[in-house]
Amino acid sequence: MTELQGERVTLRTLDVADVPRLRELRPRGWASEADWPLEGSRSTRYTILLDGSVVGFIQSHENPEPEYRHAGIDIFVGTPYHGQGIGTDAVRTLAVHLVRDLGHHRIVIDPRADNAAAIRCYRKVGFTPVGVMRRYERNLETGEWNDGLLMDMLAEELDTSRTAPRG
Ligand SMILES: CC(C)(COP(=O)(O)OP(=O)(O)OC[C@H]1O[C@@H](n2cnc3c(N)ncnc32)[C@H](O)[C@@H]1OP(=O)(O)O)[C@@H](O)C(=O)NCCC(=O)NCCS
């Protein structure tokens, strides 16, 4: 089991015991599979903990092809916990792990183009917008295709000023 320590949050390898609370906190339309988050995902999945309580979910996926090697991040924080810096702390903590421990030079993240809170959160970590991916993701409840914003961050752009150095 991996535990990644952030400024306030802890990212802990997803455990089956966390699933009921994560399913309660999961936003509508987020990974709608019936067996989420235990479906055969190739992502590395973590529970976000604050003071020992489950407050959200974050995952990374890696493209291992030598020519294109990079990693991507997805996250949600439960609505009662929004706006307290938890998302920023969690994304930064996972990005630090991907850069420092796994040697990635580039991380991507792709919020909906109208998701201002997510875009603000990711900018605070060091991500910058690359461009709009038109009709990129589908809302499976309405069938509507929504634009996504591709954001990326190079290792040297990651703000590690609030992160403890690793030994
Ligand atoms: C995106 C998300 C993870 C952010 O988590 P969080 O813990 O609320 O994030 P933080 O508190 O660290 O930062 C949010 C920032 O957005 C700002 N913000 C909130 N609502 C906003 C809005 N409507 N417009 C602009 N900025 C907004 C906050 O003020 C804060 O910035 P500040 O610290 O400069 O004041 C969370 O909103 C979430 O889980 N949303 C639902 C799922 C989702 O959209 N996931 C992203 C998929 S890519």
Can you give a write-up of this model?
The model has no long low-confidence stretch (mean pLDDT 93). The protein has 3 helices and 8 strands, in the order E-E-H-E-E-E-H-E-H-E-E. The protein has one domain (3-157): Aminopeptidase, CATH 3.40.630. Helix 2 (86-101) packs across helix 3 (116-125). The longest helix has 16 residues, at 86-101. The chain has helices at residues 19-25, 86-101, 116-125, and strands at 3-5, 9-13, 44-50, 53-63, 70-77, 106-109, 128-138, 145-154. The chain is α+β, with helices and mostly antiparallel strands and 167 residues long. A hairpin with a 6-residue loop joins strand 7 (128-138) and strand 8. It is globular and about 40 Å long.
- Which CATH top level class fits? Alpha Beta
CATH architecture: 3-Layer(aba) Sandwich
**Uncertain segments:** none
List the helices and strands in order: EEHEEEHEHEE
List keywords for this structure.
167 residues, alpha+beta, Aminopeptidase, 8-stranded mixed beta sheet, 3 helices, 20% helix, globular, binds coenzyme A
